């Protein structure tokens, strides 16, 4: 199962302090808008998203259709097909994509310890 690019989305208290901290660890801005309280940072193949005031917990995030540089892949598994496969394996989804749709969509689930997982397709 290819879930696409992986990142950790962090719920931060002060996005500017968090940005400064992660820059000291070698992360550089890849995308986002700090004035809107979200920023994507990258160090090698490692990606973290900083999000202030947008959600309650840290989230494991997968992006079908993207590589680790947020560039479009020629071929990828659509989030709706991933949804069908996950459900066929007995997993419970918290939110589902419209299976008759196409293009951008997302699904969410939790691991056994309550960690949120977002599978977010942008195209």
From TrEMBL:
Region of interest: Disordered: 98-123
Regions crossing the membrane: none
InterPro entries, per the entry: Glyas_Bleomycin-R_OHBP_Dase, Glyas_Fos-R_dOase_dom, VOC_core
Domain VOC: 4-122
UniProt cross-references to PROSITE patterns, sorted A to Z: VOC
Domain of life where this protein originates: Bacteria
PANTHER family, alphabetized: BLR2520 PROTEIN (PTHR36503:SF1)
Protein name in the entry: Glyoxalase
Source species: Rossellomorea aquimaris
């Amino acid at each position: 199962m290819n879930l696409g690019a992986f990142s950790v989305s962090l719920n931060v208290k002060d996005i500017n302090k968090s940005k400064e901290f992660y820059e000291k660890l070698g992360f550089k801005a890849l995308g986002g808008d700090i004035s809107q309280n979200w920023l994507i940072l990258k160090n090698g193949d490692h990606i973290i998203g900083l999000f202030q005031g947008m959600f309650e917990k840290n989230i494991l995030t997968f992006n079908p259709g993207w590589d680790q540089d947020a560039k479009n892949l020629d071929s990828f598994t659509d989030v709706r097909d991933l949804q069908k496969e996950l459900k066929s394996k007995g997993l419970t989804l918290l939110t589902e994509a419209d299976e008759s749709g196409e293009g951008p969509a997302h699904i969410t689930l939790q691991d056994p310890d309550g960690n949120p997982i977002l599978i977010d397709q942008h195209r």
